[in-house]
């Protein structure tokens, strides 16, 4: 598999993980429902103060 650097996955490994998570029925394709669910989940994680928008207030105090 891919190499880890500093405990983080490289961009390719991170992207592959996102693809695997979004393809919930594991058929190698993304349905509109799968993409919508993945984006909704990501939005909810990023909207830390749950105000319905993603702004600077939702950003962590440290770099990603």
UniProtKB/TrEMBL annotation:
InterPro entries attached to this UniProt entry? EF-hand-dom_pair, EF_Hand_1_Ca_BS, EF_hand_dom
User: What is the organism field in this record?
Assistant: Pseudorhizobium pelagicum
Name any one GO molecular function.
calcium ion binding
Ranges for the region named Disordered are 1-27
The chain positions of domain EF-hand read: 40-57
Its protein name is EF-hand domain-containing protein
Q: Which domain of life is it from?
A: Bacteria
């Amino acid at each position: 598999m891919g190499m880890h650097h500093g405990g983080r996955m490289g961009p390719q490994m991170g992207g592959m993980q996102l693809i695997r998570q979004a393809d919930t029925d594991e058929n190698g394709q993304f349905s509109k429902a799968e993409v919508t669910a993945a984006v909704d989940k990501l939005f909810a994680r990023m909207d830390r103060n749950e105000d319905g928008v993603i702004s600077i207030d939702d950003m962590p105090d440290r770099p990603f």
